[in-house]
TrEMBL record:
Keywords: Oxidoreductase. The keyword Calcium does not apply. It comes from Sphingomonas mollis. The keyword Disulfide bond does not apply. Belongs to the FMN-dependent alpha-hydroxy acid dehydrogenase family. Its cofactor is FMN. This is Alpha-hydroxy-acid oxidizing protein. InterPro entries: Aldolase_TIM, Alpha-hydoxy_acid_DH_FMN, FMN-dep_DH, FMN_HAD, FMN_hydac_DH_AS. Residues 2-385 form the FMN hydroxy acid dehydrogenase domain.
Amino acid sequence: MTPLERANNVSDLRLMARRRLPRPIFDYIDGGADDEVSLRRNVAAFADYELIPDVLNDVTEIRTETSIFGQPSRWPLMLSPTGLTRMFHGQAELAVAGAAAHHGLLYSLSTMGTTRLEDLAQAFAGPKVFQIYIFKDRGLTAEFVARCRAAGFHGLALTVDTPVAGNRERDRVSGLSMPPKLTVRSLLSFLRHPGWSVPAMTGSKFDLANVSHKVDALASGPMSLFDYIGGQFDRSIGWREVEWLAREWDGPLAIKGVMTPEDAHRSIASGATGVMISNHGGRQLDGAPAPVDQIEAVREAVGDAADVICDGGIRRGSDVVKALALGATACSIGRPYLYGLAAGGEPGVNRVLTILRAEFNRTLTLAGINDIAALSLRHVHNRLRSPSHAH
Ligand SMILES: Cc1cc2nc3c(=O)[nH]c(=O)nc-3n(C[C@H](O)[C@H](O)[C@H](O)COP(=O)(O)O)c2cc1C
């Protein structure tokens, strides 16, 4: 058995990633904002939901196929956009997208990714979404729309929870900067992880490949990522800009970072086709509610047609079953695949997706569900809201 095969769950892969990465890099993936309350709640909230099984249902065959952003997906999971992926493994986004394609899942590339969207599209035929921001320079956003269309991206996810960078204190303590550089504090940790450090320091150039043509200063100067975000992100944007983007793109568009039924409704009214309920994995507004707790109300607000994606906190396949029962179209994961990537490149991401898929199918089987379309509120119960006998 290889070490990856010995990993039983996402938690095991997280520990493998922690061993493999220098501490500042691991903390960049693993950490959240302020006191990391939302980060912990995102995961813990799933445990408050009980699954109510149906027994004596024929579960020899289980139907899990669905459609997200209008694209087919083998089961209701997608891979969230994450920036700076080359920092975690030399194969970067191509490894993640490759594993997503192997598993028949949608992949989303971040604006802050380290692979050009055209290169990603060329290497990866599967369904793909580009995560976009509305920058101060609207021309840059419009340029992304045109590039995504030309490259054959199927959808856009507009991230709206990042008017400023969150206060990630682990990164401040470790002195993490962009591109990663050695500080006295982190030097020892880098030296202790030559398996990561040598390729990272000598390998292909580390770059925000999709925006670097506009911000040369970033590649050459001492500017940190935080300065960059502060400079380009537009705090003045509102719903008018969503309407503008929906018109420009004229295709599947999800607003990522929506938390309330009101904003979900407004997203659809402004031309989006879906929402990603998300607090950016607890990396932005600490204290924001757990996405899973918002699903039911959001679904009610947007009706049946819109995509409602629960993004954040998923660590088990059973979490996806709970989210679907509450009304989600699908779930989306960030850290779980990054742990796999750091632990072992594309095979590591494959391992995570295999584990989650097996957990998902086993949970459905045990819950007596032979078609995900049959999942409903009847199958899930929040033990904090009412005693289960009242169900
Ligand atoms: C290392 C890292 C980088 C991220 N970069 C981005 C990004 O560039 N754009 C974005 O919209 N979200 C980004 N996210 C948030 C993810 O898309 C997603 O919302 C979050 O990871 C979901 O929570 P989870 O990690 O618990 O699955 C990032 C998350 C992580 C962990």
